[in-house]
UniProtKB/TrEMBL annotation:
Name of the protein: Aminoethylphosphonate catabolism LysR family transcriptional regulator
Family, as annotated: Belongs to the LysR transcriptional regulatory family.
UniProt xrefs under InterPro entries: LysR_HTH_N, LysR_subst-bd, WH-like_DNA-bd_sf, WH_DNA-bd_sf
Classification via Pfam families: HTH_1, LysR_substrate
Span of domain HTH lysR-type: 1-58
Entry keyword set: DNA-binding, Transcription, Transcription regulation
Length: 294
C-alpha cells in the first residue's frame, strides 16, 4: 500500500478541499489529485463525491478516513516522542466554535505562549462544529451544551445567561427585566436549527407555556441583531456575545434563568497530543477567572 496516496487522501478528507490539502502537504494540486485518483483506481473504489462547491467523502471514504485518522495520529504521537515536540515548537491546531467571542481570547493567549503553533479556526452553529469534531476535521471545539458522548473528553467552562434583544423603542424596553409571559403573542427572531441558543429559548418557552405569534428564522447571530435593530421582532443572545448597538435594548428575563453552558471538548484518544492538551489546560485556567459551571 502506498503511504503517500493514503496521506493525500487523508489531507483531502480533513480539509474537504483538494486545494487546501495540496497546500498543507506542500504539493501541487495536480500531483495530489493524481495520488488520490491512483488510490481509487488501484482498489476500484470511489472515495470522494466531487462538486464545484465542496468535496465530500463517500461511505467508503468515511470508513477509510476513520482508519487513516488513527494511523496518522499514531504517527504524530511517535514524532512527538522522538522529536521532543512536546515543547510545542511547531505544529497545527484546528479549532472550531459556535461563537467567536469565547474562543478569541483563548486563541490570543495560546498564540502568545506558543507562537510557533499554527492555528486555524472555523465558526459555525453547534451542530456543524460537532460534526467536524466527530469526523476529526477539528482538534478542539468550544460549544454550548454539547450532548454527552463517550467519544469526547468534555470540560465545563462558562455559564452564560440568555438575554432579550429588543428594538430600542419597544414598550418592553422600559422594563428592568421582562417576564417570559410578556413574550406571548410577539414575533420572535430565532437562529437556525442547530443553534444552542435557539434550543435553550425553545425549551424555556415551552416550560413557561408561552407561544409567540410567529418566528422569523435567520442564520447567524449577526443576522438576529440586524433583524431586531430593524424592528422585525424580539431576539435572544448569550450575555458574553453582547455588543453595543444604539438600536437595541438588552434586558434580562425577570422570572426565569435561561442560560447556555460553554464547554471545551476533544476526542478522548487525542487529548494527549501536546497542542490539544495545552489549549484545553489554558481554557480551564481561564474559566477559573470567570463564572464556572457548577
Amino acid at each position: 500500500m502506498n503511504l503517500m496516496q493514503l496521506r493525500a487522501f487523508h489531507a483531502v478528507a480533513t480539509q474537504s478541499s483538494f486545494t487546501l490539502a495540496a497546500r498543507t502537504l506542500g504539493l501541487t494540486q495536480p500531483t495530489l489529485s493524481q495520488s488520490v485518483k491512483a488510490l481509487e483506481e488501484r482498489y476500484g473504489v470511489l472515495l470522494f463525491e466531487r462538486s464545484s462547491r465542496k468535496v465530500q467523502p463517500t461511505e467508503m471514504g468515511r470508513r477509510l478516513f476513520q482508519l487513516t485518522t488513527r494511523l496518522f495520529d499514531t504517527e504524530q504521537e511517535a514524532a512527538t516522542l522522538l522529536e521532543g515536540s512536546a515543547q510545542l515548537a511547531q505544529g497545527l491546531l484546528q479549532l472550531g466554535a459556535d461563537s467567536p467571542y469565547y474562543v478569541m481570547p483563548l486563541i490570543a493567549e495560546f498564540d502568545r505562549r506558543h507562537p510557533q503553533v499554527e492555528i486555524r479556526l472555523s465558526i459555525g452553529n453547534a451542530g456543524a462544529v460537532l460534526e467536524d469534531l466527530s469526523e476529526a476535521r477539528l482538534d478542539v471545539a468550544l460549544l454550548s451544551n454539547p450532548p454527552v458522548d463517550p467519544r469526547f473528553h468534555i470540560v465545563p467552562l462558562y455559564r452564560d445567561p440568555v438575554r432579550l434583544m429588543l428594538p430600542a423603542g419597544d414598550a418592553l424596553a422600559a422594563l428592568d427585566a421582562v417576564p417570559a409571559a410578556a413574550l406571548a403573542g410577539r414575533r420572535l427572531v430565532m437562529r437556525e436549527t442547530g443553534s444552542m441558543t435557539r434550543r435553550t429559548v425553545e425549551r424555556g418557552l415551552a416550560e413557561a407555556e408561552v407561544a409567540p405569534t410567529a418566528v422569523f428564522e435567520v442564520t447567524g447571530r449577526e443576522a438576529v441583531q440586524e433583524a431586531v435593530g430593524h424592528g422585525l421582532g424580539i431576539g435572544f443572545i448569550s450575555e458574553g456575545e453582547i455588543r453595543p448597538d444604539p438600536r437595541i435594548a438588552i434586558r434580562p428575563l425577570g422570572d426565569r434563568g435561561w442560560q447556555t453552558d460553554e464547554y471545551v471538548l476533544c476526542h478522548r484518544d487525542r487529548r494527549r497530543f501536546p497542542a490539544i492538551r495545552a489549549f484545553i489546560e489554558l481554557a480551564v485556567a481561564a474559566a477559573a477567572d470567570v463564572q464556572v459551571i457548577g
